[in-house]
Structures are given as structure tokens and as C-alpha cells.
Amino acid sequence: MSENKKSGGFMSGIFLGGVIGSIAALLFAPEEGGKTRSKIEAKWNQFILEAEKMLKDVQGESPHAVGEMINSIEEGLDRLSQAVEEAKRAAKEKEAELEGEK
Fewest CB atoms within 10 A around its CB: which of 39, 47, 62, 100? Predict the structure, then answer.
């Protein structure tokens, strides 16, 4: 059981890190704010789909392990949601900055 918890947490961490890294890369890409926000939204939707797939994959494990995995993913989603909101704010600021340069 401890091994399942470690494995699930590790995989969740890798997945969440990849999504956050992707968002960061999008924020620093030299594109218009609208395109950047669209990419962030697409990555968010992809993250949700992959998280749901991960949950389905672990349904065969014990209910306790599944519960821990769900909690871990929910915590990651909360952190990701905060990061997305921050990314949106930063994108809007960058867009306003670029508009001011025209």
C-alpha cells in the first residue's frame, strides 16, 4: 500500500510538473495574448482528460489507494488552477503591455 501511494504521488507529480512547465513555456512564447490563452485552455483540457484516464487506470487498486490518488490529483488540480489563473493574469498584462507599444 505504501508503494502504491509513493508510485501514485510520484506519477501525479511528474504529470503536474509537465503541465505547469507547458503553461510556463506558453507564457514566455512570443505570441499574442489571445493565442496564449487559447493554448493554456487547451493544455488545461488535456490535463483534465489525462487525469480522468489516470483515475480509471487505478480503479483496479484498493479503494484506499484510489482515494489517496484522488486526493493527490485534486490537490494538484487546485495548484494547477491557481497557476492557470496567474498565467491568465500575466498574459493579460503582457497583452496590455504589447498594445501600449503599438
Answer: 100
Contacting residues for 22 by C-beta, under 8 A, at least 6 apart? 43
Query: What angle (nearest 5°) sits at the alpha carbon of residue 16, between those of residues 65 and 91?
Result: 150
Q: What is the rounded distance in angstroms from the CA atom of residue 22 to the CA atom of residue 51?
A: 16
Q: Are the C-beta atoms of residues 21 and 40 closer than 8 Å to each other?
A: no
Q: Are 80 and 16 in contact (CB under 8 A)?
A: yes
pTM: 0.40
CB 3 within 8 A of CB 69: no
pLDDT digits (tens, 9 = 90+) for 10-55: 777 777 787 787 777 766 766 676 777 777 778 878 888 887 777 7
Enumerate the H helices of the chain as residue ranges: 2-27, 33-57, 63-101
